[in-house]
Amino acid sequence: MNSFRETNGYQSIEINNLQEIYNEAQDQLVFKIWGFRENPTKSTLYHFLSIIFLGLPYLIFSSYPKLKKVKFKPAALDFATTILVCDNHGNSNFIKIENEKLTLPNVNVALENLRYFLYQHTKYVWDSNSNTFVTLDNVIPSQTVDEYLNNTDGLTDREYRSRLDLFGFNKIEVEVKSYWTLFVQEVLNPFYIFQAFSVGLWLVDDYISYAICVIILTLFSSITSLIQTRRQSEALHDLVESSKCHEVTVLRKEGQINEKKIIDPVELVPGDLIVLPASNYVMPCDAVLLTGQSIVNESVLTGESVPVTKTALHSSSESYDIEAHKRHTLFSGTHVIQTRYYGDEDVLARVVRTGFDTTKGSLVKSILFPVPIGLKFYKDSFKFILVLFAVAAAGMTYCLYLYISRGAPLKHVIIRTLDVITIVVPPALPAAMAVGTVYSQNRLKKIGIFCISPPRINVCGKIKIACFDKTGTLTHDGLEMNAIIPSKNSEFCPVVTEISTLDNEDKLVQGMATCHSLTRIDNEINGDPLDLNMFEFTRWELHEPGENENERYDMLAPTYVKPHGTHIKDTSKLPYEIGIIRQFTFSSTLQCMSVICRDLRETNMIAFTKGAPEKLFGMCLRETLPTDFTIKLSQYTAQGFRVIALAYKHLPNKLKWVEAQKIKRNVIECDLTFLGFLIMHNPLKEETAPVIKTLHNANIRTVMITGDNILTAISVAHDCGMVKISDQLFILTLENKEDPHGIPDLKFERASGNLPTDSVTVDFSLDHHHFAIDGRTWSKLKYYYPDMIPSLLVKATIFARFQPDQKTQLIMFLQNLDYIVSMVGDGANDCGALKAAHVGVSLSQAEASVAAPFTSSIPNISCLVHLILEGRCALVTSFAIFKYMALYSLIQFCTVLILYKEHSIMGDYQFLFIDLIITTSLAVTIGRQGPSNELGSKRPMSSLVSAKNLIPLILQIFTCAFIQVATIYYLFQQPWFRPIPSNTIEPVVVSWENTSVFTISCYQYIILATMYSKGRPYRQMLITNFWFLVTALSLTIFTTWLIVYPCKYVADLMNLVYIPHGRRVENYFKYSLLGFPIVHFLVALLIEVGISDREWLKKFIQFVSCKSMPKNRYKLLLQQNGYQSLINVDG
Hints:
Strand order of the largest sheet: 22-43-42-41-23-35-40-39-36-37-38
Distance between the termini: 48 Å
GO molecular function: ATP binding; ATP hydrolysis activity; ATPase-coupled monoatomic cation transmembrane transporter activity; metal ion binding; P-type transmembrane transporter activity; polyamine transmembrane transporter activity
Mean pLDDT: 82
CATH architecture of the largest domain: Up-down Bundle
Oligomer: single chain
Main location: membrane
Structural class: alpha+beta
Pfam families: Cation_ATPase (PF13246), Cation_ATPase_N (PF00690), E1-E2_ATPase (PF00122), P5-ATPase (PF12409)
Shape: elongated
Radius of gyration: 36 Å
Number of helices: 36
InterPro entries: ATPase_P-typ_cation-transptr_N, ATPase_P-typ_cyto_dom_N, ATPase_P-typ_P_site, ATPase_P-typ_TM_dom_sf, ATPase_P-typ_transduc_dom_A_sf, ATPase_P-type_domA, HAD-like_sf, HAD_sf
């Protein structure tokens, strides 16, 4: 077995003709590939049979690609001409391996003969050294940060051409297929082929009018579907195209010099050196910033509308990584608001990814090739359709027996038998199931919630756990500066609430005025809300000089700050201004940021660092830290305050501007002098607490995942009701007491009174207790106690100091416990988690965002309640329509079989009336019912084939059949009735048998549609669905008229027996038929209200099935924890 590890985190294992591609970051299989070569004999036979059978094998093989293996023979991957790709969701496809002549300098693999295949817009290249297919990330060798910084040359023409051959053009193309192509794909759908078969059969059977109407309606349905599909493709295409630029300036090496060239962005390749314009530019690729800085709006990717400052790479020997260095990387599709550099120098960036390999391309691919949702409803619907086919087979067998025993002609036997299957399996079933989702999507759009993955609306109805980011999601974005606690001589000073009490030259004030990433855009200060609030508290001014101010700070003019209203009377003195020489932007890994500054009046530079107190504690000199540092921090974080630590250090006098631009970050962020705490208040949004209460009442678990301090998170959890005051809360930590290199001990600290106390004994059987875990503990848990994570996760409520990748990991762990997971965040550091969750909701004002399946312009978590309500409504509606369509076909199936037995059949216009007027109108209007206004504690069922769902359904089927049989036997009891002669060869349409059973069956469709339109607990009451009521009432009145006294024209048109007014006996019979639908209505109501909705049915099923253990892993763990003995943890 040969193995090969790719640099982008993918691992490949080659076994004979098999290779497995793993995503190492997510520790899961992506897909498998098998090598094949075409077998000429088998291939020729395949094409011959396809011609003989009018293309049927082509159709079957296109629907089930894995069957194409019959054309091929297995081959080692290095000799294969075709590969079979099977992903971990069961999808498979055959892909041809391409071959190209290519020579490429400076790459890891020999590429004179390039073999590759394209799968979901990703190129996999054959590496002859490892005998595996690798992604293009592995073709170009990784470079260190210093190598990027030291190489300021553009590509030569030969290098460019070679790379263009390998990587292709820089395109993210969302194909908008022509209407003709979409139409061909649509009609090749198995259901449409079945529809065509049915229409052909009806034409042979002289159902001309019905067949023509079905053709017209099918064309109308197809065209509507095509338009909808086309619009969705155009919307995504326009979203991708809206974030494109039209030209780009690159540096190309001509001889020994770099020359500027303006090219089309599609011609860019990895390694190109681009020159960024001064402002208003859309990035055409992923590129690392080498010089200057850039202010970027990344809302199209993250949903975060606050501008982000990107700075040039800092000198380092570490390998460049696009995720680790994202603060220095400009991403494709993002809007560059401004770029800045000193003097006339260009702002340069090196292209690292192009096309679908960019971050934007990956997000687009996740939309084009979504991960299957796996909702049981969709799987069960196909099982149910197979059951319908089985029922049809039984009906066909009965028809064969019936007509053969009567000695009917072969044509009649074949037509009557095949006709059964067209009745039992309704071709419009898939389209009808989507009605509820379409209505829900439109309602969501009206309230400002946009969806790019409509099938996920149904998943919203099954959410079991709701995860929330804290800042900007549960709490407001803006932070209110509450106080400052300065530190002097290793002691905390009195609390300062007014900045004017401190001297402007105080180092704490200077740090607050400079240690940020704020910038001016259109003469307004923009940036992170925390930085903005801190700076405004100082009442200083921020200036970004123009070219005429290049006289200061070592001949270069950086951004500078000064106290508000500073005026120098003595012009010979230098003003009190502090220039920000260099920024080390905030890193979620380091949890801090730093700046290098210089007071214009001083010769030496100074560095300021601000960030998480826990991080700065280890960066500061011990002698500068107050002894009550931890106590003071706990006091404020436990009250819900956001605490930021600030520190500084003097830099050597000899450090000049050039050295400052190259100094490493770790040199700055050490041996600092602690300055004090900034105490900020991050108030809850008004809607947060009521929504959390609503979710808890709905039996939906809530979890907080934040990058903030654990005690601050605990306080917010108490304030919003995520953790009740009466609940037990334990902070989980891992500590090495004796051997620092040994396995750390688990330690549970009770957060009593919002402050941790001594280690305690934790009883997992307690219902009202929670765990709080920070990112550092999480990493250790995964390494030392992986088996314990599931048991902890079912009780953990607070996850603090979590980095973006840890948030994604947590979401996936919860999914592995069989939770249906939702994640709500502002998009900034939550993108991975939002995409990983079953239901990801990005709070953003940008409608055109691919940050998550759902984007809400409602700026609070109440949007999740709307989504759950609509999801439950859509899921229940889809169930209702599916059951109605299934019962409609079975009702008609019973009607047809009864009439076949009595030598009769239904007429052309009778089929039209049932299929097109009754069923279609009712199925469409059922979906118009809106969601309930209240979120109940019970989730709707997601399984069609569960006993609780099937038992009422079977009872309804038997009720329908019984009423129809009772009707025909009631007819037989009439003394005036004369049956159709048994020696009749041609079936009779106009007969009392037909009239009686047909009219009663019409009522049954209306009755069942009414039963499946019940409102509570997931939908609004039936009386609110105006169009359904109008439709059902109109159809009931018309059907009653058809029974009681239709005019002769209508009776003849509908193939009914016409009875003149004077024939009282027959008319009394028709009046008495009205009792059957009344009885049916009462029985159907009893089944739905007295059986289907009752808890006793569920308990009875569990008793009969001897169900004792839950199916979901999280429920099983909760049950096991309930019986688990006390876990003693040594304090």
